[in-house]
Amino acid sequence: MKNDKIDIALIFGGKSAEHEVSIVSAQNIAKTINRKKYNLTYVGINKSGQWLLIGEQEMFSLKSISSQEKTPSEKAVIPYTRNNKFYLKIGKVEKIIDVVFPILHGPFGEDGTIQGLLKLYNVPFVGSSVLGSAIGMDKDVSKRLLKEAGVPVVKFMVYKKNQKGEISFEKIKKSLGAPFFIKPANLGSSVGISKIKIKNEFIAAIKNAFSFDNKIIIEEFIKGKEIECSVLGNEKPIASIPGEIIPTLDFYSYEAKYLDENGAKMAIPANISKPLVEKIQMLAIKTFETLCCEGMGRVDFFLTEKDKIFVNEINTIPGFTLISMYPKLLEKSGISYSKLIDKLIRLAIDRYKKETRLKTDR
């Protein structure tokens, strides 16, 4: 920490199918963060897994992080710890980092992998720790835990790749009805998702979902509104006002979430009754706590025409693009984009301080 500024490493990109979205989220954080409070170091992870220094000017024109760097030794970033301080080494230059802000969506970033690495390096980081991240990423495990806690979830079936021969359209339709959704179990941002209405669409959708994960989840289709609610905090999380997603296409696709400003309409706040608002906020916080999440999370719901609520999933590193619901919902709840970043960094530091007080030996 120099000149009373906090040194932040913004880590983005990554090896997942959400690489490009992660870059857009990082660019928006970089544009909005209070430069009087924070020094920023940009660390981009390319699709090969290399950590590379991204310059300030390059940052805002970046669309993808190349795997073929001309001078990798000059741009390669090496993380390490010395004397209980976390460093990034770039060439011959060393930088002390106070807090890491991982804005890595999907596998290898949102699933507990980088969180475990950062815990080993003994550095504060924004968002859920290892357990909450891993649980939140796995739609199968998270739904089973929510069901056990009495949180309403849609009917679902799970298959692993070695069970591929057991999956049949007729069996799924009998259990879940039609249409239904086929999804990779460990991916976000609507990547690899298909809405199946007829048998002819089934085989290709199964193949597509298994191309992203070795486990897939098949879910009942719920006719109704898609509601989202942002959660912020550690031990005492708060919930935002809920908002409604109104897709202009068949469902809320990857493109509609992140790339196409006309891909969906957003109603903030959602046009629902006060008792429903309060119930959704209560369920959002219960979901967040049941799944051991910290820092931030966006909880997605289905609301039927008869006002029945189902939790769809949680996103532990939600999007921070200009059309992302997580910051928009909190902004409408009275927490600006810049203030939200401040709070997330403070939550990371507070958790770290509490963890460092714990004994590590007898």
Can you walk me through this structure?
This protein is α+β, with helices and mostly antiparallel strands. The chain has three domains: 120 residues, Rossmann fold; 146 residues, ATP-grasp fold, B domain (D-amino Acid Aminotransferase, Chain A, domain 1, 2-Layer Sandwich); 65 residues, ATP-grasp fold, A domain (Dna Ligase, domain 1, 2-Layer Sandwich). The protein contains twelve helices and 17 strands. The strands form four sheets. Strands 12, 13, 14, 15, 16 and 17 form a six-stranded antiparallel beta sheet that branches. Strands 3-2-1-7 form a four-stranded mixed beta sheet. A four-stranded antiparallel beta sheet has the order 8-11-9-10. A hairpin with a 2-residue loop joins strand 5 and strand 6. It is globular. The two termini are 32 Å apart. The model has no long low-confidence stretch (mean pLDDT 91).
Write the layout of secondary structure elements.
Blueprint: E1 6-13, H1 19-32, E2 38-45, E3 51-54, H2 56-59, H3 72-75, E4 77-82, E5 85-90, E6 93-97, E7 99-102, H4 113-120, H5 130-137, H6 139-148, E8 156-160, H7 169-176, E9 180-184, E10 194-196, H8 202-210, E11 215-220, E12 224-233, E13 238-239, E14 243-247, H9 254-258, E15 264-267, H10 274-290, E16 295-304, E17 309-315, H11 325-332, H12 337-356
